[in-house]
Design goal:
heterodimer, A: 349 residues, alpha/beta, Nucleotidyltransferase, domain 5, 14 helices, 40% helix, flat, B: 344 residues, Aminopeptidase, globular
């Protein structure tokens, strides 16, 4: 941290770091608040649902749990606002409002504090995507800075020089080579092979092997969350799914492994390609400082497998950050706190 | 610790700078390069190509134009432009430009470009589609409207750095009719108009680039493509017929052709250095509405095809989008140089 410790903050200002994720979004605030929610927003489908739910809108896990009564939206796709959908824009604003409320923005407003936010987006987000995000945030905060998500991670970890950040999210896997400068386009890469593609693969494999099982995407995502792995299985993966209404147990160990390992080739290829573009004298240091973040980095054995792949190009070290889910929003908060007052004046939302 | 602090300060400064550019609707200049290896090859090509390109041509209408009322007139007020040898009264009503009188002109006389000191100073860039009009889309969710804006903004930076003036028909994800685009181009008095698009081809393995200027076509594929690109309904049939009759014989067409050839060659030479298999789909004429509306040499470049998985993957890479912008820039520069050379 450059000027102040996280959580202390300026009393006149509430600083926020936000990781707006395809599957989950998190916020870290300078008042010490830290929250993570599922990136789902739902509106009651009709009057009856509204009466039962007693709410006009539901967000996060609550929305998922009541999805049968809701017009449910997952408004982010590949880490960006879903294109061409008015409902998605409205849903993103609801999501942001909810995150901000959790972080204590309403209290801050009452105290007359300014609210400043740093939001992370995929490394290769187009300018138009960032402009859409700016307009979705308009009026919700006083000042806004948008940065690439892996840069926020690198900043929060002080991994600014000779480091490769691999941020494995649900919608995208973002790579960022840190060379002691603000990452340029050639320093960053985005792949759509990420958590969602693993879910999709797992769904197909399970359906192919157990066509009688009645499964949904939400069930598959939960199984992956509980039991994902690459390499040697830590144990058998058994799940329960209904067959003609009757709960039935299935072994999906092989399917889980295949689905999770589908991530390895594109991630390894991109990782090695980016490292090979670094000046030769720094490549060994870069290989020795590969950092995995994001919810999908929690797949067991992923770091070890990537480290093994680096053996082919001279060896290296891959580490998974301690708190992969919050590391992006924590990094955003660090940026928000460190940015000088005069700079924030230029970035009014 | 002190050095980490210094690095952080520099990173923050750059992050803020990028955001300020975003707020201002501008692109932060990226250092040119990455593919410098090929630039020498292209430079050599462009020394030779213009000599062969423009042996016979006509005078640009703009140079002879006698402007009676500026195109800067506020929206909704009549805009009257009179040109020699062509005259036409143009009225703008509710965002649609209507040709108020029948065109009257005599056949243009060809003469050498050197007679008039011509130059390209202001370039109008038109990122295709936008807002509600997504254009084509790849299977994995890349949209033409986003790519065209991105490439246009990169091209804008390159042109500004080379001391051209640039007017953009849009700088954000906004819905613009063809009439709006033409109106902006004419009001800003651009010397040339470059509309950027990304194609969709029925054969999803096909790739390639093609550049259009205004003219008739009997090709059913081009008729379909023009119908798609003209799809905003702001162009009336009568207007199309009148405009085509006016333009086909116009001198502007020859300059449009020259610009299209320069851009197509540049795109092709550039892209073939990356992939020798890129197909030359050629310089073609087609009745694109956006080209009809403009009063300066105008082209529409289809810089790739989102129907192709290979192209989609390439478009996702910002280095490739920068590369396309540089190819378009080289084409515009080659055309501009050819005017200067002929004027000298």
């Amino acid at each position: 941290m450059m000027a102040r410790e996280k959580g202390s903050g300026d009393e006149q200002v509430l600083n926020l770091g936000i990781d707006l994720g395809t599957s989950r979004s998190s916020v870290s605030a300078s008042n010490g608040a830290r929250h993570m929610i599922d990136s789902y927003v739902g509106w009651p489908v009709d009057m009856v649902a509204r009466k039962v739910l007693k709410r006009d809108v539901m967000i996060g896990r609550e929305a998922l749990d009541n999805r049968l009564m809701l017009d449910l939206h997952r408004p982010l796709e590949r880490g960006l606002i879903k294109e061409g959908s008015e409902k998605a824009i409205a849903a993103v604003r609801e999501l942001l409002r909810h995150l901000l409320a959790l972080a204590g923005v309403d209290d801050a407003r009452e105290k007359g504090q300014k609210v400043r936010a740093v939001v992370g987006v995929p490394a290769e987000a187009l300018r138009v995507n960032k402009q859409q995000l700016r307009s979705a945030m308009s009026g919700l905060v006083d000042s806004l800075m948008i940065v690439s998500e892996p840069f926020a991670v690198a900043y929060g970890l002080d991994a600014l020089l000779h480091a490769l950040i691999v941020d494995l999210g649900a919608g995208t896997t973002d790579f960022c080579v840190m060379k002691g400068r603000y990452p340029r386009e050639e320093d960053q890469r985005t792949l759509t092979s990420a958590g969602d593609s693993v879910d999709q693969q797992l769904m197909q494999l399970v359906q192919a092997r157990y066509p009688e099982a009645n499964i949904t995407h939400h069930m598959v995502a939960e199984w992956k969350e509980a039991s994902s792995f690459v390499g040697d299985p830590p144990g058998r993966v058994t799940i329960e799914a209904p067959v003609q209404g009757k709960p039935t147990k299935f072994d999906i160990t092989d399917e889980m492994r295949s689905a999770c390992e589908s991530l390895l080739p594109p991630v390894i290829e991109t990782m090695i390609d980016l490292i090979s573009r670094v000046e030769p004298e720094y490549q060994a240091r870069m290989r020795g400082n590969v950092i995995l973040s994001g919810g999908t980095a929690l797949i067991k054995g992923l770091g070890v497998s990537l480290q093994e792949a680096l053996q082919e190009v001279g060896g290296g070290k891959v580490r998974v950050v301690k708190d992969p889910v919050y590391v992006g929003s924590d990094g955003g908060l660090a940026i928000a706190i460190d940015a000088p007052e005069s700079d924030w004046e230029l970035l009014q939302a | 610790m002190a050095s980490v602090t210094r690095v952080k300060q520099r990173l923050l400064r750059e992050a803020v700078e990028e955001n300020v550019f975003l707020v201002q609707g501008r692109r932060r200049p990226q250092p040119r390069g990455g593919l410098r290896l090929y630039r020498g090859l292209r430079a050599t090509f462009f020394l030779v190509a213009p000599l062969a390109l423009f042996s016979l041509t006509y005078v640009v209408g703009r140079a002879a134009a006698e402007k009676t009322v500026s195109a800067d007139a506020p929206r909704g007020r009549p805009i009257l432009l009179s040109r020699q040898p062509m005259t036409s009264a143009v009225t703008e009503t509710a965002g649609t430009i209507v040709l108020a009188s029948a065109p009257s002109f005599s056949a243009p006389e060809p003469f050498a470009r050197g007679v008039l000191p011509l130059a390209v100073r202001r370039v109008v860039l038109d990122p295709g589609h936008g807002g509600e009009s997504r254009g084509t889309a790849s299977r994995d969710g890349l949209f033409e409207k986003e790519l065209t804006l991105d490439i246009a903004q990169r091209l804008q930076e390159l042109l500004l750095a080379a001391n051209f003036e640039v007017a953009m028909t849009r700088t954000e994800d906004a819905t613009l009719s063809l009439a709006d685009r033409g109106e902006i181009a004419n009001r800003t008095e651009g010397d040339i108009f470059v509309s950027i698009h990304v194609n969709w081809l029925e054969n999803t393995d096909a790739r390639g680039v093609e550049t259009f200027y205004l003219g008739p076509t009997a090709d059913p594929y081009l008729e379909r493509l023009a119908a798609t690109e003209n799809g905003d309904g702001s162009l009336r049939l009568a207007e199309l017929r009148d405009a085509l009759e006016r333009v086909y014989a116009g001198v502007r067409r020859e300059e449009s052709r020259a610009l299209a050839e320069a851009v197509q060659r540049s795109l092709l030479v550039s892209l073939r250095t990356l992939d020798p298999g890129v197909r030359n789909r050629g310089v073609k004429t087609a009745p694109f509405g956006v080209l009809i509306r403009t009063q300066m040499p105008a082209i529409l470049a289809e810089v790739g095809a989102l129907s192709s998985e290979v192209d989609s993957e390439l478009f996702r890479d910002p280095t490739y989008r920068q590369y396309l912008a540089e190819a378009l820039f080289e084409g515009i520069q080659a055309y501009s140089r050819s005017l200067s050379d002929n004027s000298a």
